[in-house]
Design goal:
It contains seven helices and eight strands. The protein is of the alpha+beta class and about 280 residues long. Helix 3 crosses helix 7. One of its GO terms (biological process) is regulation of neurotransmitter secretion.
Length: about 280
Amino acid sequence: MILGVFCARNLASVDAMNKSNPFVVVELVNALLQTHTEYKTINPEWNKIFTFAVKDIHSIVEITISDEDPNKKAEFLGKIAIPLLQVIIFLQIQNCEPKWYALKDRKLRTQVKGQILLEMDIVWNPIRAAIRTFTPRERKYMQRDPKFKRRLFINSYTRLREFLLVLVEIRDYVQSCFDWDSPMRSLFAFVVFIIFVYFFHIHHIPIIILLFFLRPYKIKSSKSNKNSSKSVSESEEEPDFIDTNGQSSSSIRERFNTFQDTMAKVQNTMDFVASLLERVQK
């Protein structure tokens, strides 16, 4: 398939100067291509030609227009989804002629401001396409960028807190040995330390590491926690801000995006550390 992305007109503005920095992302199942960014305009011209290898004629090509912010976070401007079969029908009527497409929202339900000019051409084999119809569709493996979710953040914090409590207990136990709260226990710990220092060799390090895997402690490994983290509703999407107050609205949106990105990084780091500790504990 050959796809020409030429230009767009009357796009939504996201800054105080009623301008945008739009760019286009074209997706066909697991193939993704992107145009350059046109700065300070709502009528951009990209004039790019993309070529895709079509594996299934029943696939859908998705074209998304986004605005590039100074903090490199893309803001949604509009989207369209075109089935390849619909492109073939259009080509039979009008041979490779550019066409204006009205942009829609993220869920492709309502029309938003702006249009995009595209030109498409497909070279395909009807026999191979008919045979491909009886095989399962290719799965789409691309994932969305992780977003901050309050429940997932609290869940990760709870999982980490259990390990921190164990570390606090170990610290208190060691401190009690130094404070001689129990003379017998402190004496025993001292003897063990002397023997350890006397007989310790470098090759004992792997054995010491192995002891961490043989510890009798059972921290709640939470398959339930993992399931709950996966079942966190994905409907908690970033709220849409409407630029009704000019610079004030834009500033609030930028601050919110920066805060959300920071919290998402903290959330993902906490989840990674908790998952790693749970694997070690098992």
